[in-house]
Specification:
Elements lengths: L1 H10 L10 E10 L4 E2 L2 E5 L6 E5 L2 E13 L5 E8 L4 H14 L6 E3 L7 H9 L3 E3 L15 E2 L5 E2 L2 H7 L3 H12 L11 H24 L11 H12 L1
Parallel strand pairs: 1-7, 7-8
Antiparallel strand pairs: 1-5, 2-3, 4-5, 5-6, 9-10
Helix pairs in contact: 1-6
């Protein structure tokens, strides 16, 4: 499946996706196809690899899908699937190294404060990547002028970094499209390996739509999940 993904990416060369210089990273979570184990409610009963993720008042048993998205084109450039309780800081290095090994020329990495750590920033520095990651309140409390996000989700800091950080919404949109149109949140298999296959198929579907848009000379529709319908309507009108 990795070979198929690589082949689909080659067909997307016209979009210059491998030259994506600005990449946004953000996790999304999918529910496991299992209930909690009554003997250990932190894991799944029929899917022991699934884990709990606490977000505010919500508790999700499932997997985390950590996506890297081209902030300019909105296409997924890479992903890692992990148990839902896996910390984002531990996953980001694996995802970033995958992108570099795959030939992506990442120059700027955008992520939210939960990715902020010395290890992540040092790795970005070694890879000559500018990290646009806000510092949380408990880091460098008395240092002014750092990129931060307040309680009302307002962004403060250097103007250029603030402007770049706004591009992180590309990842959130990709998460919404994959769940709303490509079935990402309809996991009906068990185990980490099968969950990874499920995510891979969803990403493949988004690539195929983008390839179809290029073949029909509609690069403006590379992210459109309604492309097949639009092509069908155009053919009907022409006939």
């Amino acid at each position: 499946m990795q070979l198929i993904l690589g082949d689909l990416l080659k067909q997307l060369k016209k979009t210059k996706i491998h030259t994506a210089s600005i990449v946004a990273m953000d996790p999304t979570f999918i529910k496991a196809y299992s209930k909690r184990d009554p003997k250990n409610n932190t894991v799944g009963y029929s899917d022991p690899e699934a884990r709990l993720r606490i977000e505010g008042r919500n508790v999700t048993l499932g997997y985390g899908v950590h996506l890297a998205v081209d902030a300019l084109r909105g296409l997924v450039t890479g992903f890692v699937v992990a148990p839902a309780n896996r910390n984002e800081k531990r996953v980001l290095p694996h995802l970033l190294i995958r992108l570099v090994m795959a030939g992506f020329h990442v120059k700027t990495l955008i992520a939210d404060p939960q990715y902020s750590s010395n290890a992540v920033r040092i790795l970005c520095s070694l890879c000559k990547i500018t990290a646009i990651i806000p510092y949380p309140k408990n880091q460098f409390k008395h240092v002014k002028g750092l990129l931060r996000v307040d309680k009302l989700f307002r962004i403060h800091g250097p103007k250029r970094q603030v402007k770049l950080y706004h591009k992180r919404s590309a990842d959130e949109r990709s998460n919404a499209w994959l769940k709303g149109f490509y079935g990402l949140n309809q996991l009906q298999t068990r185990g980490l390996e099968n969950a990874t296959i499920h995510v891979t198929l969803c990403v493949m579907a988004s690539y195929i739509i983008a390839i179809a848009a290029l073949k029909h000379r509609r690069p403006d529709l590379i992210r459109s999940p309604t492309l097949p319908h639009q092509i069908y309507m155009q053919k009907s009108i022409l006939q």
